[in-house]
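>> received
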Amino acid sequence: MSVNATQLIHQIPVDPLTGAISVPIYQTSTFVQEAPGVNKGYDYSRTNNPTRETLENLVAKLEKGSTGIAFGSGLAAIDAVVKLLKTGDEIIAVDDIYGGAYRLFTNVYEKFGIKVQYVDCSNPENIFNAVTGNTKLIWIETPTNPTLKISDIKAIAAIAKASSCLLCVDNTFASPVLQQPLSLGADIVIHSATKYFGGHSDLIAGIVVTKEKELGAQIKYYQNACGAVLAPFDSWLVIRGIETLHLRIKQHCHSAQAIAEFLATHPAVAKVYYPGLPSHPNHHIAKSQSSGFGGIISFTLKTDTEATALQFVKQTQLFKLAESLGGIKSLISHPANMTHKSIPDEKRRAAGVADSLLRLSVGLEEAEDLIADLKQALDTIELQANHHNSKKLATI
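>> returned
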């Protein structure tokens, strides 16, 4: 059961010392102790900080987990989870994985003897067939970035349990407002809190939430030992973003559904990737495990070339060309040249990330204004394509 607005708001605590309704920012590096090892629960802000701790406890409650751990970036959060493994262990990961995670797995951890198999996780049978005796971690995004594939969390959790390995779900695109993987059997959830949690494109942060306390304690150890902690002010910004998360997600979903339906009817569009469309291959799975379909849409153009895609991103006015997603302003990106550039072309295309694929992060502008912006850009592209074809025919 997803969290509602009342639950979300009232899980943000009032300060017990002063009654402050806004969580205080404990902007301090160290804490005075009564005696060596005798303190009020805090000694050094890398190890623990009251503002960060409030955020960690809040997100753990939202995800219905035992332990939350906040990091300086989403990749630092991913890195801490991979540190649970050792040489000889294997990861099964979703094939159209976020480019930064691919770079970390392949260029950093494979040289330490941790192998990674990339499979299409939208079919649990592919994971079942890929499991070996060395598989220790199954890593999925659902929806995936950027082709919005949907994985059956409950079915994959059963495979992970039977194989004595961990299941980690990147829940960034959905957020706990829409989907709670730990309740469906996952062991670990991670978030790039930079995205929907923060919500205003003004911070970098990552969150890990574990179902079991023992596993959380291990990741907490790596947070302290390796030091990639989230600063107090950024922790406060994430808390502040979470205060409006429910309302923002509701609007993101509403507008994205309308935009996806529009794109599906435009003659210049070849294919729309959005789990809220009945045409999506796993629409029924998304509907069963989520309370909404999110604010991210991807699509390909009929003229399936990189040049056309790059031309298109210059035509939009409200959709700004930028990395990242989940903010109040709508963004557009070209994954092949941006978020997924670190993935070799052949692997990227095999995973469905085509040269003409474009990803939209639908913001909080009026849906009709965003549709009008996309329409004028698509109409321009279509007009140019027809003009090019006419000139080509005239020379024959």
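>> The mean pLDDT is 94.
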